[in-house]
Amino acid sequence: MSSIISYTACPVCGSSAIHYALKAVDHTVSGESFDILQCANCSVRFTQDIPDSSGIGRYYRSEAYISHTNTRKGIVNNLYHLARRFTRGSKKKLIRRTTGLSKGDLLDIGAGTGAFVHYMQGAGWNAAGLEPDAEAIKNAAALFNVTLKPSASLFELPSERFDVITLWHVLEHVHSLHDYMEQIKRLCRPDGRIFIAVPNYTSYDAKKYGGDWAAYDVPRHLYHFSPASMEILTEKHGLTIKRIQPMWLDSFYVSLLSEKYKHGRGNILRGLWNGLVSDNHIFYNSRRASSLIYIISR
Ligand SMILES: [Zn+2]
After folding, report:
1. At residue 64, does pLDDT exceed 70?
2. CA of 104 to the centre of ligand 1 (A)
3. What is the C-alpha R_g of the chain?
4. What integer is the mean pLDDT of 233-252?
5. How far away, in angstroms, is 147 Cα from ligand 1 center?
């Protein structure tokens, strides 16, 4: 039996100083609306009255949920795949620049259909991936000949096993947030690096679109992080944020989807324009980017 989680305290810092922030609609699967609350202490936002981990599955069952299915229908999906190809290369460069390594042991948590694991294997890395969705694991084998392990393996892998651990837009989906943080810390070598990419609700485009901001993606996104809340979360687990890197292309993609949600159809030009305006703001303040990569050490 699944049940509904109604938070009475902040899921990141435990403070009971939580209050209503805004309402957002699930545009991709259910059409249901959810309240988003905010913590006055650490500033994280989170989705209220969410299904627990055994009940959330039905909110992922949509052809529109492209990171699991690799569908190429529609211009927004095509842009997603184009951006993903480009982003893969810049992630690899970022990892190399940050760690000084051009190969090593890498774990991608929430690997989807295995595209990034496959890409990094091709670049000479000993890359492995974990994925909660059985269908995505099958797709990874069929599409890329990549063998992903189920998420539970996170708790079984040997300690200090990886030079690099990546979570590309994954942490905001995870019910057992603090267990994940502890395991990630355990699996990372003392001189290793952890790369966590999450949407940033303090971004320019989040402010502009409000409840229509595509990256709220309720109820699949359980937490909506700010840089300040990520600092408190990592500190709580004895980890340190070394650097924060904006994800430039995400602003475009999120603006395109948000335009679609706001006006009921995609206005490509306006979406691109807002993406561009968003990136201009980021030029002046990189912490205002739609998504941020936190580069973390033990
Ligand atoms: Zn908090």
Report:
1. no
2. 35
3. 18
4. 89
5. 37
- Give tens-digit pLDDT for 5-56: 999 999 999 999 999 999 999 998 999 999 999 999 999 999 999 999 999 9
Cα–Cα distances in angstroms (integers) from residue 121 to residues 102, 133, 184, in the given order:
11, 21, 21
pLDDT tens for each residue of 73-86: 666 677 777 777 77
> 113 and 70 in contact (C-beta within 8 Å)?
yes
For the chain, list the domains and their CATH numbers. 65-297 (3.40.50.150)
Contact assessment for residue 144 and residue 113, using Cβ atoms and an 8 Å cutoff: yes
Dist. CA 173–CA 137, nearest whole Å: 17
Query: What would the two tokens of residue 205 be?
Result: 């485009």
Note whether 113 and 137 are within 8 A (CB).
no
Q: What DSSP letter does each residue of 86-119 carry, written as one string? A: HHHHHHHHHHHHHH--SS-EEEEES-TTSHHHHH
Beta bridge partners of residue 45, listed in sequence order: 38, 224
Expressed in angstroms and rounded, the spacing between residue 7 Cα and the centre of ligand 1 is 11
CA 230 / ligand 1 centre spacing (Å): 10
- Cα pseudo-dihedral 221, 222, 224, 229, rounded to 10: -140
Least confident span in 10-14, 91-95, 109-113, 261-265:
261-265
Rounded to the nearest angstrom, the distance between the alpha carbon of 28 and the centre of ligand 1 is 28
Whether cis (ω within 30° of 0) applies to the bond prior to 51 is: no
The reported pLDDT for the residue numbered 62 is 66
Taking the C-alpha atoms of residue 46 and residue 225, their distance in angstroms, rounded to an integer, is 8
> Separation of 289 CA from ligand 1 center, angstroms?
22
